[in-house]
Automatic annotation (TrEMBL):
GO terms for cellular component: cytosol; perinuclear endoplasmic reticulum; plasma membrane. Keywords: Lipid transport, Lipid-binding, Phosphoprotein, Transport. It comes from Salpingoeca rosetta (strain ATCC 50818 / BSB-021). The keyword Ribonucleoprotein does not apply. Residues 183-198 have a biased composition (Acidic residues). PROSITE patterns: OSBP, PH_DOMAIN. It holds the Pfam family Oxysterol_BP. GO terms for molecular function: sterol binding. This is PH domain-containing protein. GO terms for biological process: intermembrane lipid transfer. The keyword Phosphoprotein applies.
Amino acid sequence: MTEAVHKEGYLLKWTNYMKGFQRRYFVLDGRSLAYYRSPSEMAQGCRGSLNLLDAKIETAPGNNLVIQPGGKRTGQVFHLRANSDRERQDWINALQLAKQMASNLRQANRKSGSTRDLRRAVSSLLDEVSQRETRWAKALTSSEKRRNDLEAALESLARDHRRLERSAEIAAEKGLVVDAAELEEETERNEEEEDEFFDAQSDLSTSGKSSRRLSGPPASALVGHAHRGKPFEFRRAIPFKPNKRVSLWGIMKNCIGKDLSKIPMPVNFNEPISFTQRLSEDLEYAHLLDKAAKATSSQQRMVYVAAFTVSSFSSGADRTGKPFNPLLGETFELDRRHTKGWRALLEQVSHHPPIAAFHSESDDWIFWQEFSMDSKFRGKYLEVIPTGVSHLILKKTNDHFTWTKVKTTIHNIIIGKLWLENNGTMDIVNHTTKDVCTLEYMRYSLFSSNELHSVRGEVKDKSGAVSFCLEGKWHSSLSVYSPETPKDKHVIWERTPPIPDFEQMYGFTQMAIESNEISPYERGCAMTDSRFRPDKNLMEVGEWDMANRVKHLLEEGQRFRRREYERTKTKWTPAWFELQPDPVDPNKKRFQYKGGYWEAKEKSRFGDHGIVDVYDIRPVEQKDMDAARAAKGAMVINDHSELADE
């Protein structure tokens, strides 16, 4: 019989991004390749080994070679580097010979197998099947008990919520008018300071004419719009994030240089919210648009619009979780006419590339955007680069603004605490008056004078003259001042303080917590609404393992629908948005709202618009039935619309 191949020697082995290639002692013995720190360590056991039987042996530039397990085996991949091309070739020859001899030996053993060996193998397999059957039966019983406990807990939670709603109704009704009056008084105090500043600037730019009061919706708008005379109070908290540790690097190391929107990720790295909901948080400080609509000069209007664009980043200041990628056709409505005077609709209009269309409107303005992005993992950090365009029209003056968001970078992917920054240049253009605001989101560095989260900007008229200067931090506040009086600064926007225990609730803002709840104002929303998404809802209540299973089923359902479209040669089209020429760049087409959603909701006629149930789960195996049942129950976890109506 031919002797087994044997070879020893030092090679450089890739370890990690902190240490790079390290010198290790490799031993090839038969069909096994093992490595040690040094020959003296061989008696203590190897640090890693690899079976060459089905392994793939590949060469790479720079005297490199890669050895990875073949077939269905999983294990360590060896990234190696030799000192010379000749040394690399010697190792490759030895490895290929060892692999061939192992394959020949396996074939010989197969041919010489006896009936006795076959019986022994069958008996062993039967024992294994019996043991697994016992384990599966226990696991099934445990899973069924856990599901029943979850259903009972959810039912109890709903009953408790119903009792609390009823107990609070009388007290809330008595305090509603007082709260509204206090809000009006506070609003007037804040806006008087802004009026004083812009009145002073108006003396310089508008021949002594004083500016009008910059006020948002009157406080009286908060009274009398409660559901059937009963105020609805949104929840103030969600279940705390479970302390479940998982290696981010273990998953991300295979994603370097790739678009993360195309890579399935476990919910461990998510936050329990869909990206359609996350995008709607741009409107958290929409009162700035109300003020822009009422400002007297185009430069003042630009100041408020600039503050609005800065405020849209603040909701992500304390959040590093990834929102759920929306399913194709997933929608989200947000109706805040009863308190803030606007409503919004979002729809996922494309899957590859992922594109979300967003339309919102009030009596004074229309804001819409087509949001898409490129995301790249660079090893130590993750880059998210928006590519869509935002549009804003102020109805009274017909001012038309556009801008594109700046890049977001998430640091410390490998080691350390995750943190993010927004950096780059944003140009906000008023295509009606030709005013321009340039905002510079400063990149933080230990070796520069830039503070973390800093943003600075200038508002220029069509002649290029600077009218106002802006500075602040995108996660907290923004101030405005005149270039003639740089020390006389006035806060134009300030972030709402975080809610209690926000760190344990994924860093959510109050608006993020509300967006996952079905209030009376969203009653009757489309079945494609993100609030019904079951994997997200299961994650919110702490059922992460089940959420992962349901997430997989939802993605499989999406693939099933895509194959059906291909089989029937049917082209999928969005229900509420369509490609139209961009108003400021007619050569480009962008998704814009075509109308019909709110009318269909009012008449309960969503079926007339051809929408499909994007949360339809089609379990292909019996083991998925538990996940399907859990998904069905999770679709209404946060539905309090009926409770508030009783």
